Amino acid sequence: MKVSSIGFLFHEAWLNIRRNGWMSVAALSTITVSLAVLGGVLWAGLRVHEIVAQQPQQFNMIDVFMKPTASRQISLSTKTKIESIKSVKSVFLITKEQAWADLTHRDPTLTKALPDNPLMDRLQVVARNGADVKNLAHLLKNSQLFPNVMQVNDSGKEVRILLSFATLVRNIGIFLALSLAVATLFIVTNTIRLTAYARRREISIMSLVGATSWFIRLPLLVEGLFHGVVGGFIGSLFVLAAASEVAHFVAQLNSPLLMYGTSSIISWYVIPGLVGIGAIMGISGSLLAIRRYVHA
Amino acid sequence: MKTLSKSTLLGNMITMRNVSVDYPGHCVALSDVSLTISRGEFVFIVGPSGAGKSTVLKLLTHAETVTTGTVMVNGLEVEKLKPSEVPNLRRHIGVVFQDFGLLPDRTVYENVAFAMRVLGSGRRAVKERIPVVLEMVGMAHRPDAFPNQLSGGEQQRVAIARALANQPDLLLADEPTGNLDPETSLGIVELLHQINEQGATVIVATHDVAIVDQRERRVLAFSEGRLVRDEACGRYDTVAEVSVGK
Ligand SMILES: Nc1ncnc2c1ncn2[C@@H]1O[C@H](COP(=O)(O)OP(=O)(O)OP(=O)(O)O)[C@@H](O)[C@H]1O
Ligand SMILES: [Mg+2]
User: Fold this and answer.
1) Rounded to an integer, what distance in angstroms lies between the CA atom of residue B180 and that of residue B157?
2) Is B174:B56 a contact under the CB 8 Å cutoff?
3) Which of these, A23, A36, A135, B72, has the minimum number of CB atoms within 10 Å of its CB?
4) Mutation target vs B (from A209, A213, A294, A295; most B CBs, 10 A cutoff)
5) From ligand 1's centre to the CA of B224, what distance in Å?
6) CATH 3.30.70.3040-classified regions of chain A
């Protein structure tokens, strides 16, 4: 096809978009929002998956919380007692004063609001082998052996919660992504249907003078492509903005789940990603509308 | 009935053989019509409303298809064309309608340019061709006017310019003067006549008695789907006599 014809096709597509006026604006906004949510959902899914994949390094840790009534002496003797277990590699004591200082640093308003330190001493137990963690946690929970232990959190539990959260995110994500993809397709199809109607005179003249059916359809395809690509681009900017907000917030949480490894997701990839998905949606939507509403 | 020789087919712009068209709902629009039109001819198709005039023209552009029979146009066997080959047939045919069919939100220039651009003509070719066709139809002074700023006769001239833009071998006009006053009508027919003199085959379907009688060109008269008269230098009103005589 000649360069001048490509120019003509784009010009015609732009005429259609302008002629549809507010309808075009509405379609573009809806497509933008759909693609942004789609992108956000996909990103969140990937990120949670990534965090889960990074967790096995932490499988060998157990947090043992002492009773608030337990003295430092008892904490230390419990530490020694745990250290003597064969499957234990090391034990660290995090005193309630250290924990308090840490919390004061992280959340000064909270600590100011509290009358005094409600925290307890914590023993961070590192197992020699991740496989021993479950038995070890079971042993530490034995109140006859360790009467001053209030609670035992093995990392398996956190990981289990994370895993079920990841599954939830994935299922919701798949559902949302599919519904939004269908919605986007529907909006594009409907917009192109309106264009085909607004363009019926042009289409009949094109057909009358002997334009090929592809030449008749291309302005409509270009219009669908425009909505998909522009919607995808603006949507990806929304996703980038939202992602940096979320990253900021999550960093503040200081979750131990996020301590290991950084994300390998390259954030600006979301731009070509959503533009690509948008382009596919735009072209498919146009093709559906053309098949149903353009007979030339 | 022997098939015509190749040279005869090429000499003819249009050949219809035993053409019948049944529209769904038991309406016979054309029955057993055979005719030939040579290259360079000027032909009127006349007849009362519903006689099948428009149907004949539609068959030539593959806008309608025969039920039985064959139609050859410009060396192509129309009903054997694949959908992808129909554009190639239409590229050699210009069509003009009673209601002009101009795009209301485009200027005279853009309307004519549109017909060229959709066939792949470049901007430069369009720029060279449009003044020529607008001059030919006498509209060179209004390239920037919109259709609603023009009289009916002027709009029809623009429509003719559009039909001529791609240099067709065959020009079909279906009631081109149907919406125009008698004087303007004569001007349009004079224009079609000039186009014919420059080489294009021109076919005009009409029930406008005045323009047919004034020109005295070949007349094909239809009645109830049949070709009832084919006269070299015909007039319109003899149609009535034939119909009454039947
Ligand atoms: N699409 C269609 N479906 C069914 N019947 C049709 C269709 N188009 C035309 N007809 C019928 O075919 C017959 C011939 O129609 P045609 O349009 O060729 O007549 P015409 O001679 O052009 O008439 P007019 O002078 O009113 O334009 C008419 O009886 C008409 O009702
Ligand atoms: Mg008619």
Assistant:
1) 12
2) no
3) A135
4) A209
5) 10
6) 57-158
Q: What is the pLDDT of residue B7?
A: 45
> Residue ranges of the alpha helices (H) in B101-181?
108-117, 123-136, 152-165
Contact A23, A194 (CB under 8 A): yes
The residues pairing with A88 across neighbouring beta strands, listed in sequence order, are: A127
Give the ipTM: 0.87
Quickly state the pLDDT bin for A158 (edges 50, 70, 90). Answer: low
**Per-residue confidence (pLDDT) for residue A55, from 0 to 100:** 63
Fold designation for A57-158: Alpha-Beta Plaits (3.30.70)
What pLDDT, on the 0 to 100 scale, is given for residue B244?
Answer: 40
8 A C-beta contact, residue A216 and residue A203: yes
Residue B39 token pair: 């290259």
CB A49 within 8 A of CB A249: no
Burial class from Cβ neighbours inside 10 Å (0-12, 13-18, 19+) for residue A138 reads: exposed
The phi and psi torsions of B200 (rounded to 5 degrees) equal -75, 145
CB A235 within 8 A of CB A227: no
Give SS3 for A157.
Answer: helix
The rounded percent of chain B whose pLDDT value lies above 90 is: 74
Rounded to whole angstroms, how far apart are CA atoms A187 and A192?
9
| pLDDT at residue number B238 | 62
Which pLDDT score, from 0 to 100, does residue A259 have?
57
Residue A148 phi/psi, 5° resolution?
A: -95, 5
A 10 A CB-CB count for A261 gives: 12
Look at B88 and A5 and tell me if their CB atoms are within 8 Å: no
CA dist., res. A290 & res. B5, Å (int) = 43
Residue A211's pLDDT band, with cuts at 50, 70 and 90, is very high
Quick one: pLDDT band at residue B245, thresholds 50, 70, 90? very low
pLDDT at position A58, please?
Answer: 59
Name every chain B residue with its beta carbon within 8 A of the beta carbon of A19: 105
Is there an atom of ligand 1 within 6 Å of B54 CB? yes
Q: Is B206's C-beta closer than 6 angstroms to any atom of ligand 1?
A: no
Q: Do B118 and A211 touch (CB under 8 A)?
A: yes
Give the model's pLDDT for residue A244. Answer: 85
Determine how many CB atoms are found less than 10 A away from the CB of residue A52. Answer: 16
